[in-house]
User: Which sequence fits this backbone?
């Protein structure tokens, strides 16, 4: 995977992520029984490369399950890398002992989403912020107090005396998030990983906290990783944006390029789905169908293809897509569901991902006739173009799909896109 | 039978509003005194109309929604008049109110998983819901009705016998909406129905709500903190602040030409794709045990005048239609001499922040 050739004269990256994968094993036994599925692997982060330049704000944007939070946590060494490496200031996190890893966290700090959960309810504001200093070995109580006061002033919690002895329950949502920010900056870090820092806050304070983060960035020369599902705040806040889907980056580039000319269909969909407070604008009708699929068994081919409004034959169609298409067909009011359901029979076996699908219970001819009718009624459905052949196999038919690899990131202009609509140039 | 009576009322009063709320108040008793969460709210809702209710947290939006349904917790009291097709639902006996809920008044909650029984199949949820109100229906008839609604919500018939855990978050919310609509209620309150969902799924649900009026002729009170969703899915909007509706009118008109400073501030503080600067509302909504005198927004208002701190603003007809209560809009003859001088007020700091 290519990495960005950086701006001329740019300093060496502060954080360097190379081909990073973070996989979680679903263990057998009670956990598997609890989830009702066999053991497997969740590829929360799957082959991501990313550089952080000093002073830049990089946004990781995607829906839940896209791996954006896992990637953020991996940057602090909070989850171990399965493959690949993360280098912070030329030290590979994987090689560090726990103690050295703790030292690295003076450089990289995290701001969590929910300030109610991030603050210990039995610690005062002073204790909470000073705790980070204590953990990092600042022994002198006077020095700790001085640095806490300074941090609280920086985040606007002044007069400080009013806040030092307060407990989280005495504070409003915005004030709590300021305390969380103070705790993050008290160690003078260089990088802040902010995981949805404003999404739990009321609309009226979001802008205030974002403004504070921008001020802190200028005053303290911080570098941000901003994790969010909200493209609107990312547009305002970030220099560079990585759009993530099911553990992979599908599009990455400078913010202005991404917004002026979104290329990946997922990026376009995210942009179109933001409700604007402008009564003249309406949501588009061709929103992606469905939801983020199960990460334990991601779709074959491009992970976004089952929802993609621009999908083509080469996207990697498979058994589960056929199931979805049949179910969609049966939602139409004019379709004789009960009869057709008898022809097709059970659909459960289609949940096992495969490009070869045996289907039908009511005889090859009847199944073929039904599929042909569906195809004729909606010839624009891209799934059909992914079918290479259909053969009779009583009591149904066997459908073969064209297997396709997941698309890799490719450079187009200033951005990198992973989508079959943007094939590699002829030189490759 | 009570049902026949209601239907007669419908026929006689088909053109009037479905819901007509007048001076609705809800308060919770606490040791510090009564929290006046809803304090004199009036609005009408026409058949098939969607009214968006917006405001910051703690402005009484959810309390109003629950109050209308009669689903308030112990210790809460309500007052005022809410006419549902001419009948005052606040004056009904608990039994009559129980019969009305579900059949005529529906509610969609924020967190769908906590409202579905994990041990019951979707089919059983529908059987329970429908048979509660129409005990004579056979299971086949129930299935037919349920499948029709599920289809409109985009849930395939193959999933009818699944359990709630087999559905994704967005699907569960669709199930909740389907369970509410299968009884074809005339009035539905949806309390932050998309807050727990992902962006794309949120947009899908907003479209479903938008299509409600076409498919069901249901009147909807949509409670949200997202003005974007109001613009997308509502006909009219009511802006709530500290227990009162401070401005209401047609969405296009209110959003293009907001007349209350709170509406303006709320719209400005929203971060959208067209945002070029960060704006916020200083301070926080007031403590509703002891709200500020005069206009409740005046301590946070950048345009406050002397009269705003002294006299309660008057609810007046809004230029362009609707209602507004703000001294900037009048009535002139009730403003005392010198009342229009800018109010000198203390600067709000982080100490007062929301």
Assistant:
């Amino acid at each position: 995977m290519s990495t960005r050739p950086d701006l001329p004269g740019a300093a060496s990256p502060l954080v360097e992520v190379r081909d990073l994968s973070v996989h979680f094993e679903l263990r057998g036994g009670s956990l598997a029984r609890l989830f009702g599925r066999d053991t497997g692997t969740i590829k929360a982060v799957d082959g991501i490369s990313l550089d952080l330049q000093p002073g830049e704000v990089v946004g990781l944007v995607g829906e839940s399950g896209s791996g954006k939070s896992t990637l953020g946590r991996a940057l602090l060494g909070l989850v171990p890398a399965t493959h690949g490496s993360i280098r912070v200031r030329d030290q590979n996190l994987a090689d560090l002992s726990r103690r050295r890893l703790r030292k690295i966290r003076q450089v990289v700090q995290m701001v969590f989403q929910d300030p109610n959960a991030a603050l210990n309810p039995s610690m005062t504001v002073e204790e909470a912020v000073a705790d980070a200093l204590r953990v990092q070995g600042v022994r002198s109580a006077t020095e700790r107090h001085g640095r806490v006061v300074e941090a609280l002033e920086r985040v606007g919690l002044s007069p400080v005396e009013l806040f030092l002895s307060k407990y989280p329950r005495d504070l409003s949502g915005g004030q709590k998030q300021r305390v969380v920010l103070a705790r993050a900056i008290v160690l003078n870090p260089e990088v802040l990983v902010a995981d949805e820092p404003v999404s739990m806050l009321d609309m009226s304070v979001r802008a205030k906290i974002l403004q504070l983060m921008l001020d802190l960035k200028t005053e303290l020369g911080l570098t941000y990783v901003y994790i969010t599902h909200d493209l609107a705040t990312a547009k305002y806040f970030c220099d560079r944006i990585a759009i993530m889907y099911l553990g992979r980056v599908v599009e990455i580039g400078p913010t202005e390029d991404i917004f002026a000319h979104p290329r990946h269909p997922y990026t376009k969909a995210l942009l179109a789905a933001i409700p604007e407070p402008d009564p003249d604008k309406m949501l588009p009708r061709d929103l992606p169908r469905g939801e983020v699929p199960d990460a334990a068994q991601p779709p074959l081919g491009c992970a976004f293809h089952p929802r993609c409004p621009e999908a083509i034959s080469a996207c990697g169609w498979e058994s589960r897509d056929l199931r979805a298409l049949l179910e969609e067909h049966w939602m139409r009011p004019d379709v004789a569901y009960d009869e057709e359901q008898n022809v097709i029979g059970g659909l459960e076996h289609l949940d096992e991902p495969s490009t070869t699908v045996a289907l039908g219970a009511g005889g090859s001819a009847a199944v073929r006739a039904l599929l042909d009718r569906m195809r004729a009624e909606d010839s624009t459905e891209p799934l059909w173009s992914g079918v290479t052949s259909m053969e009779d196999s009583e009591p149904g038919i066997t459908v073969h799909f064209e297997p396709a690899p997941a698309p890799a990131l490719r450079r187009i202009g200033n951005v990198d896109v992973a989508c079959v609509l943007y094939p590699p140039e002829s030189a490759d | 039978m009570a049902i026949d009576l209601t239907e007669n009322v419908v026929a006689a009063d088909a053109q009037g509003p479905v819901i007509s709320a007048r001076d609705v108040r809800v308060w919770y008793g606490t040791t510090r005194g009564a929290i006046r969460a809803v304090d004199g709210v009036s609005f009408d809702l026409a058949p098939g109309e969607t009214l968006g209710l917006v405001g910051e947290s703690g402005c009484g939006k959810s309390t109003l929604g629950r109050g209308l349904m009669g689903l308030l917790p112990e210790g809460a009291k309500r007052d005022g008049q809410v006419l549902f097709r001419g009948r005052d639902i606040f004056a009904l006996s608990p039994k009559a109110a129980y019969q009305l809920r579900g059949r005529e008044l529906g509610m969609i909650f924020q967190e769908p998983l906590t409202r579905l029984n994990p041990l019951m199949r979707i089919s059983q949820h529908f059987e329970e819901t429908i048979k509660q109100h129409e005990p004579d229906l056979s299971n086949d008839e129930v299935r037919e009705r349920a499948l029709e609604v599920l289809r409109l919500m985009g849930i395939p018939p193959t999933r009818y016998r699944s359990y709630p855990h087999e559905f994704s978050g967005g699907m569960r919310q669709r199930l909740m909406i389907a369970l509410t609509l299968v009884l074809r209620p005339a009035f539905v309150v949806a309390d932050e129905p998309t807050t727990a969902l992902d962006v794309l799924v949120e947009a899908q649900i907003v479209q479903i709500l938008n299509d409600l009026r076409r498919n069901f002729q249901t009147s909807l009170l949509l409670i949200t903190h997202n003005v974007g969703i109001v613009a997308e899915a509502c006909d009219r909007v009511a802006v709530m602040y500290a227990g009162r509706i401070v401005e209401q009118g047609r969405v296009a008109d209110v959003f293009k030409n907001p007349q209350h400073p709170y509406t303006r501030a709320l719209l400005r503080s929203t971060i959208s794709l067209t945002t070029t600067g960060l704006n916020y509302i200083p301070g926080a909504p007031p403590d509703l045990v002891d709200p500020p005198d005069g206009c409740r927004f005046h301590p946070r208002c950048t345009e406050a005048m002397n009269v705003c701190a002294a006299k309660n603003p008057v609810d007046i007809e809004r230029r362009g239609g609707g209602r507004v209560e703000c001294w900037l809009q009048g009535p002139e003859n009730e403003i005392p001499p010198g009342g229009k001088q800018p109010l000198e007020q203390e600067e709000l700091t982080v100490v007062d922040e929301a």
In short: The CA atoms of residues 220 and 255 of chain A lie 23 Å apart. Residues 1-94+220-275+406-428 of chain A form a domain with the Rossmann fold fold (CATH 3.40.50.300).
